[in-house]
Specification:
This protein is an alpha/beta fold and 233 residues long. Helices cover 33% and strands 28% of the residues. The protein contains 9 helices and 10 strands. A 6-stranded mixed beta sheet has the order 6-7-8-3-9-10, sandwiched between helices. A 4-stranded antiparallel beta sheet has the order 2-1-4-5, with helices on one face. It starts with a strand and ends with a helix.
Length: 233
């Protein structure tokens, strides 16, 4: 089932066009990976999907419903959760309080941190009273993912979760993504520059260059050499 459908989206910052007729989809139970160099439009597309940047034309649908004009909080209510680049946890809040900020879009009966957060990232359970700003970069990334899972997402959007992270934590994040895919109740959109990580996890992929999708396909049609050429500066 298609959870996210982006169709012919154009986006501008003033006179500069950041996205050019971009189309992309993400399916429940699968990982869709978006690849590309810095500055090609990946983050602009994510901002459009979660509602942080208005689009000039085209459409963005979630679970068959057009959300193109909805503000970010209404998209969150409908199941969109973003793990932003740079993590953006609250440094002065405790780990527990950071996780509880994910309660905002869910009903009162769901305002409990899911057990799976601590099953996937056990280190968080031992640090509930520590401030988010005192955690290492890898621990903060796990916290950011845990916060997103607290929102009970239908669409989980991860913006370069391996950036600046030690290899052991990258493996933990990879295992978590595999677990969430196999659970089969959400679509996962993964933005990456780490090609091997993306190749290992992606069911479907798209490559962006200069604001356009220039390649797309499935794990079976993934041509690592062709993708690498588009990602080389």
């Amino acid at each position: 089932m298609t959870m996210l459908a982006v169709q012919d989206v154009n986006l501008f910052y003033g006179a500069a066009q950041a996205l050019r007729s971009v189309s992309l989809s993400a399916t429940i139970g699968k990982v869709t990976c978006l690849l590309g160099r810095n500055g090609v439009g990946k983050t602009s597309l994510l901002r459009a999907i979660v509602g942080l940047q208005p689009i000039a034309s085209g459409s963005i649908a979630l679970d068959g419903q057009d959300v193109s004009k909805l503000p970010p909080f209404e998209r969150a209510w409908r199941g969109v959760a973003l793990v932003p680049q740079g993590r953006e946890i609250f440094p002065l809040l405790t780990v527990k309080e950071n996780l509880e900020t994910g309660f905002a879009p869910v009903g009162r009966d769901q305002r409990k941190i899911p057990d799976e957060v601590f099953e996937l990232f056990p280190v968080l359970a031992s640090m509930l009273k520590r401030r988010g700003g005192d955690l290492s970069g890898g621990q903060q990334q796990q916290l950011a993912i845990g916060r997103a899972l607290t929102m009970r997402p239908k669409l989980l959007v991860l913006d370069e979760p391996t950036e600046g992270i030690q290899p052991s934590v990258i493996k933990d994040i990879g295992r978590a993504i595999v677990f969430l895919r196999q659970r089969g109740d959400m679509a996962i959109l993964l933005v990456e520059q780490y090609l091997e990580f993306a190749h290992e996890l992606a069911d479907d992929f798209a490559v962006m260059d200069r604001g356009e999708v220039v390649m797309s396909g499935t794990r079976e049609t993934f041509d690592a050499d062709a993708v690498r050429r588009h990602m080389t500066v």
